[in-house]
Amino acid sequence: MPTGTASGTCPRGLRRRAHDKAGRVKIVYSDVLVIGGGLAGLRVAIGVRRRGLDAIVLSLVPAKRSHSAAAQGGMQASLGNAVKGAGDNEDVHFEDTIRGSDWGADQQVARMFVETAPKAVRELAAWGVPWSRVRRGDREVIINGQSVTITERDAAHGLLAQRDFGGTRKWRTCYVSDGTGHAMLYAIGDQAIAQGVPVHERKEALALIHDGSRCCGAVVRDLASGELIAYAARATVIATGGAGRLYRVTTNALICEGIGAALALETGIATLGNMEAVQFHPTGIFPAGILVTEGCRGDGGLLRDAAGHRFMPDYEPEKKELASRDVVSRRMAEHIRSGHGAETRFGPHLWLDITQLGRAHIDRDLREVKEICRYFLGIDPADAWIPVHPAQHYTMGGIRTKHTGESPTLRGLFAAGEAACWDLHGFNRLGGNSVAETVVAGMIVGEFVADFCASEQGDLNVPTALLREAVDAERRALDALLGSRGTESADLIRSEMQQVMTANVGIFRDASGLEAAVGKLEALLRRCAHIGLRRHRDGPNPELVMAYRVPRMLKLALCIAAGALAREESRGAHFREDFPRRDDAHWLRRTLASWSQPSARLPSLAYEPLDVASMELPPGWRGYGARDYLNHPDTARRTAEVQALRERSGGRARHEIQEALMSYRHLLPERLRAANERLGEEVR
Amino acid sequence: MSEGRRLRLRVFRHDPTDPASKPHLQSYEVQEAAGMTLFLVLTEIRERLDPTLCFDFVCRAGICGSCGMIVNGRPRLACRTLTKDLPQEITLLPMPAFALIADLSVDTGKWMRALSERLEAWLHAKEPACDLSRIEPPMDPDLADRIYELDRCIECGCCVAACGTAQMRADFVGAVGLNKIARFSLDPRDQRADADFYELVGDDDGVFGCMALLGCQDVCPKELPLQSQIAFLRRRMARAGV
Known about the structure:
The complex is a heterodimer. Chain A is α+β, with helices and mostly antiparallel strands. Helices cover about 35% and strands about 20% of the residues of chain A. Chain A starts with a strand and ends in a 23-residue tail after the last helix. By secondary structure, chain B is an alpha+beta fold. Chain B is about 35% helix and about 15% strand. In chain B, β6 and β7 form a beta hairpin. Chain B is elongated, with a radius of gyration of 21 Å.
């Protein structure tokens, strides 16, 4: 790894800590700096490494401890090996994803994604992921509460198996028991080691370095020693995951604080897309919020209320427990509000019943669920129901990017995975599309990052003075915190923020609650100026870490709350009780939040429209949830156009029809453009 | 019901970056609550009593392997250790064999990365460049399940902390390393044969260093079949070595 130094002056008194004895800033150079060591970040790093570039991955924790490991149920890819997935293909996956997004997604990006997902899952198979496989012959499965015998095909024996998940018309979710994310992360982590990708662990980026239009790396703090280092890179990739810890009850790991997105926001140049789109998972265990996978319901598990009644068919007669997550969570919250929750001293909850799946099935395909129930609840889910309540789960919003993964406003800054708003998920992500996005975006964005570095734009002309000044600015801020005798506690501010977010910016939202939330969050951000520490020493200091993270988390929380307040409609996971209808006429557009200057107290909101006239799947009813929505003026015309084109194209191959409706293949990196082979569908 | 107990904790404290720091045990008292785990206990200590206490939690759900520590003499994942299963006096120490970062935080990441590099613990594919648009090669479903059984290791380090050999021999690969070799040797997608694995673990730092005390099997939070895997591997490596 090349390192260098820049000499220069800095205010007296700071020199000792900011610089080594010769007064020099430590600088680490690489072609690509990847911030975040989960699936998306590692896959980007492997991709650029294979193109002959150097990549360094920064990670708060050892890479294999990243939150990607917590993905249990599986990864969507339209292989169609399982008999209940037969006939699946990219078209069906695309439509499910767009309906799931409530038409908030970028349809070209969704197409790129569904086309690459089969390649990603097969690449992982080649890298050693022990995917669960199809067994030929008869087997008993539970569908809609009934035991049914299905017969797997001989030709599919030994190919990757698929299970059912919410919001999908085919069984499409490839899985490794219920440890899918773990198995994926270990395979990718091992490949990164094989490729010699260095992971700089326990390092935290504090700020992006940029000159107003070009990102050139990051100021990084060593969490063990406290040392500050400038990482200079031709391309910087943020892959830091979601921001679940802005909420009190979340399935997310403790490190999912949204800091990567906040660093992009703090540049004042990069924008965040659709931060108000926050997903709540139906089955967090109660009250801890630990996830139990959607695979429980996909495999036949039922939701029951205090009386033991299976209530979802009352609300969603077609998809029942397997409507999209936003719909199921909302129905659960509605049912609890109507007084049907089981009461405890921690509040009400509902039940997830997987007893009918049988012990053998649970032991093979739901073993993490079994372990979690055993260790955290003291129950065996083969015998007893699991107490569940919706919990914050996923951040659909994130750093706004082009289809290449690059920020449209800050050159050289890329984002991938949950930290990004690429925008595959719109206002609701389908289960199984998240881990799929990490590796698919990793493959695609990795190629574009390498292209960028190979182009003239990828040249880095960064004065060492810029690096030094960026380090000095962070040093000054840290020294101010370390020397502060302020009376505010960072922990307390954070916990008040989490209360506000869970109470007022949750599943049900309205103007008065959101206005109150914005006011409270703004006041909390002001209080951050008076945070004091009890230990005034750098080095391993968790109190200092919380102190510098909290204001960043609050800025993100304000983007969510302010975005939610401004969006006067309901779409996907964003539900306004005072505006319960989806309003395509006014709100078929993406929120872009930016933080104009460091002293600002609120984000600036702007909007970019989604173009109905070029959509392959024009807006309509999702097939579940409310049927009531306001149409965009262009919807009727586009729907007629699409229908006419389909009628004219009778007998043509599906790829050709698709290409005529909305061209996208040219957007993919060349090596990922080949059509996918599957059983019964040979490649052209 | 154990709720209502006043838990007395003695926690190891030391900051190796601070010349003034001396290793010692610090005492805290915490009121026990229903369903309380050591994650909740330590979080409460940090939030209410002592914001300087260092420890590592990430998933807090027993999945990521970050929070291995010595709980009353035994390596455990703290996040899923319920206080109701512990006596009123609880002593917490960092795991041995790993570099101390501070207090209960140790550097398992560096250790595991070095292990993976040394054992080349990644799949060495038979066909390095496969066409990703083609149907994947089939695999026996039961074999896939058996590979996953060994793939469930979360590199928490509990087996190393509980290993007699690892305490005496700094380069011993531990059950975590031997399990990785067993995992890749079981995988038909890996091109390596027993002779290749012998080069990696056919010595006293590898499978022949194991004294068969098998503390690893006792403490593995994922209940991996370490005892049988080490036994099988030793027999195969002995055969490969002659």
